[in-house]
Design brief:
Number of strands: 5
Signal peptide: 1-19
Pfam families: Slp (PF03843)
Keywords: Signal
Strand order of the largest sheet: 1-2-3-5-4
Oligomer: single chain
InterPro entries: OMP_Slp (IPR004658)
Organism: Thiohalocapsa halophila
Number of domains: 2
Distance between the termini: 50 Å
Structural class: mainly beta
Amino acid sequence: MPAIILALLLTGCAAQMPAQLRTTVAELTVAAAQEAPAQHTGARVRWGGSILAVRNAADRTDIEVLAQPLDAAGRPQPDAPTAADAYGRFIARFAGFLDPAQYPQGRLLTVTGTLTGVETRNVGDYPYRYPVVAATAKHLWPEPTAPTDWPWYPDPWLGPPWPGFGPYPWYRDPWYSPWYRPW
């Protein structure tokens, strides 16, 4: 019985990939697509990263993304230690209009789609080869929120564990606070 409960708890805590991203894709990096675009054209990919820019044309929207490795749920990991060649830039191309206000710079985005080729655009004065993904699905990850409240303490007379707070700032429990030692 305890093993069943443990298994249920662990499956409930497992990272779940958004439904729109659950497709079979090729294990292909942005760098590999840049080096041999003809070999990989037509491959289904799942890439993600930080949004750099959004450009709207008359019939489509191009989102320029700084690629980052994905975790098991498909979320880009900006701080993950990986090989440098896994990073790069790509363009996620969507049919129709996407509002740039809803896709601000720095937000994390994951897309799935078909690799259609490579376009050369300038990054500063440097001509950069962008792999282009005709995106069929996207997931804009929510911004992380910082905790706003200090953790609750069971004894209201002690307050937070630093001097100067609480109703009696001159008294601190010696086992509670590392700063006050009466001996």
